[in-house]
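re: ur msg from earlier - yeah i can do the zinc ion complex, just paste it... oh wait u already did. ok heres what im feeding in:
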Amino acid sequence: MKKDKAIVVFSGGQDSTTCLFWALEQFEKVEAVTFNYGQRHALELEVAAEIAADLNVPHHILDMSLLNQLAPSALTRHDEEITEKEGELPSTFVPGRNLVFLSFATILAKQVGAKHIVTGVCETDFSGYPDCRDIFIKSLNVSLNLSMDDQFVIDTPLMWLNKAETWELADQLNAFDYVREKTLTCYNGIKGAGCGECPACQLRKRGLDQYLAGKEE
Ligand SMILES: [Zn+2]
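and the outut:
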């Protein structure tokens, strides 16, 4: 029997789209929430809306443009170059972003009567984001429950998967082609395989190649 209702934190990218398919299998009712914080590409919001409509999932878009004021980084500022240096946080880092997003997603969950909040955060390919760590998610879950006197569960189906295993999960959910073609991960705003050059495309391609190579063996 499927569990009741979930809110999926949804960006239209590979990870959160895989989470959306996962949630659709797990829960009776699923809704998605996308945060608008002045992403480099308005296309990200369009892609998220398209996918939610495709999958018949009610879609909330919450305005988080204040993040722009607090954390001008390469993800939100068009005039900044995206860079990644060994051993440093990528310039896409917005400190505390998951704290903010998950808190608002849970407030929304309370309003729509959902007990589960699903997020694609992942500790395996840990790129240095402290609020992607499992221990942080567990701690936030406790705080949110105390703050609203409720019993929410934050689900993190990708927490311990690497990128290849995330493709495998999409495949198991019969969503491999869909995720491959319809999602947007690329920092340069190109759907599917993307520009092939930016760090997000390279990470995505590495995982995909690894998964496909493993399948052939
Ligand atoms: Zn790219």
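cool cool. The chain has one domain: 3-216. ping me if u need the other ligands too
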